[in-house]
Specification:
single chain; alpha/beta; globular
């Protein structure tokens, strides 16, 4: 179902936006009035970890930057605040919608309640939410991914790369979304080599405890798994995953990144030779596509899913050692074809 609507607002972002948002997270607006077409476009509100996580949030920012460049309008990206409530999140989204930003996207499942409430109050604004499929509204797009499929391929790669027959999985928070990463990874490992052992650990029970935002927790968990002979460690833990990658590099074992191509992330450059591959989901494309649909006057709504078949989940090939390993590449490609054809059914829990 698609709703035809577009808000066009004269003028650039004003000081009132900064005032409205200062109580509920930092704001960064882009594209000055001399460069814009005189309207406000895409706005995103970051998940835990914020911009600079080299993963999930940064992927969303890349989508925003693409929309800004192509459509020439003003954009906004808003940081979360520590200990914020659903009401704080909703106030942030409503402030953006009130100023005329369209679409407005909550980056992460934690925005579900806020997006639902804001969408009801601003029916002429298109809202999006990444990693949640529970909101049914005519002006909301649920941007979700088959993370378990990319994670399965990561499991295949890990099983082929391990020399110790032990690999690790580090999840940021013990929630259904991250269970998908674990389930796919473990299945991919076992289908490839049943004798390979998978060590799995979650950093916290809730996001508020820092599971997605604590590199020190990720580092400690990875070190524990490496002590138990894991020589490939896959992290689905947001900013905490940086600690996993650091531990892998220090111990000369492989890390597998997540969400973005972490081999290419500038902040992780000194560790890149230890990043075998990354299980990616194209949050940037999902964010950009929603902005484009609004710009075209045909906003996406309902569940919008990215998977291996659509190319919106994948494994990165940036590390030459990974790309040049014929055995790993053959195993990964074979598994990919079987998932797309339906011969392999990947578990999501």
């Amino acid at each position: 179902m698609r709703r035809i609507s577009r808000i066009t607002v004269a003028g650039a972002a004003t000081a009132s936006l900064a005032l409205a948002l200062s109580a509920c997270g930092g704001t960064s607006t882009s594209a000055d009035s001399s460069e814009s077409k005189g309207n406000l476009g895409l706005a995103i509100a970051y998940d835990v970890g914020g911009k600079g996580d080299q993963s999930f949030n940064d992927a969303a920012y890349a989508g925003l930057e693409q929309a800004k460049k192509e459509f020439g309008y003003d954009t906004a990206d808003i940081e979360p605040t520590e200990g914020e409530t659903d009401a704080d999140k909703q106030q942030r989204l409503e402030s953006l919608a009130k100023q005329g930003y369209n679409p407005v996207i909550g980056i992460g499942y934690s925005y579900a309640t806020a997006v639902k409430g804001a969408a009801e109050k601003f029916p002429d604004t298109t809202f999006g939410i990444v990693d949640d499929s529970t909101i049914e509204a005519k002006n909301v797009a649920d941007l979700v991914f088959s993370e378990e499929e990319a994670s399965y391929l990561a499991g295949v790669a890990a099983a082929k790369a391990t020399k110790t027959d032990t690999v690790g999985f580090v999840g940021g928070v013990d929630i259904p979304l991250i269970h998908k990463f674990q389930a796919g990874f473990e299945q991919g490992v076992k289908d490839t080599d049943p004798k390979v052992k998978v060590l799995s650990q979650y950093l916290t029970q809730t996001a508020e405890e820092g599971g997605f935002s604590s590199p020190d927790k990720g580092k400690s968990a990875a070190e524990g798994q490496i002590e138990k002979k894991a020589d490939v460690v896959y992290a689905a833990a947001g900013l905490s995953g940086q600690g996993v990658i650091e531990a892998a590099a220090a111990n000369k074992v492989w890390a597998i990144g997540v969400d973005s191509d972490q081999y290419k992330q500038e902040a992780l450059a000194k560790y890149k030779d230890s990043i075998l591959t990354s299980a990616m989901k194209d949050v940037a494309k999902a964010v950009y596509n929603l902005a484009k649909s609004v710009e075209d006057g045909k906003p996406e709504t309902g569940i919008v899913r990215g998977d291996l078949k659509s190319g919106e989940v994948s494994l990165s090939n940036s590390n030459p050692k990974f790309a040049g390993d014929a055995a790993i590449q053959k195993a990964v490609e074979t598994a990919k074809e079987k998932i797309i054809s339906g011969d392999i059914k990947v578990k999501s829990s």
